[in-house]
Design goal:
Layout: H1 13-31, H2 45-78, H3 82-105, H4 112-140, H5 143-156, H6 160-163
């Protein structure tokens, strides 16, 4: 029998909400279309690239900044092999930023392959955080560290889910 998934600690819920929106975007980019046929999602790769650029600016970049400023430094110190784990996540952030810069510089060069590659990286990154990193944070952070994280993220006004609070 599979173990029941651990309930997400309240301090991480705003980031998990952001992840949900990121996974929706990732799936659209990987598929080249929305899963829901009635969704407002463009057919042309150039238009999809424009949507991605706006999403990155409004949601992903603030989310990355919140993780990098508030979560990763503490996790690097507290978690077993935390520096290695956060280093890998930071490298993902930098790869995605580089991909976004390339897409932004070359709007006519936006291809489904580039969009798919970004979507695959984003999806893998979010899954790594949700399935491995966040459970480790919940298990290894002290209660006061989780509370301090919750307060810092509330003050940060991160991605879309956090701004809707």
């Amino acid at each position: 029998m599979k173990p029941k998934p651990q309930k997400r600690h309240p301090s991480l819920i705003p980031l998990s909400h952001d992840h949900h929106h990121g996974l929706v975007m990732a799936e659209r980019l990987v598929r080249g279309r929305a899963a829901n046929p009635g969704a407002d999602w463009p057919e042309e790769a150039t238009d999809q690239g424009e949507r991605l650029l706006r999403f990155f600016e409004s949601d992903l970049e603030p989310h990355f900044e919140a993780e990098e400023k508030h979560l990763f430094p503490l996790a690097a110190r507290v978690l077993t092999d935390g520096a290695e784990r956060t280093g890998a996540l930071l490298r993902d952030h930098e790869r995605m930023r580089g991909m976004i810069r390339a897409i932004g510089r070359e709007p006519d060069g936006v291809t489904r392959e580039r969009l798919r590659a970004f979507g695959e990286l984003l999806r893998a990154h979010i899954r790594r955080e949700e399935r491995d990193f966040f459970p480790r944070v919940q298990a290894e952070f002290a209660p006061e560290e989780l509370e301090a994280l919750a307060a810092a993220l509330a003050d940060a006004a991160t991605g879309a889910a956090c701004r809707r609070r």
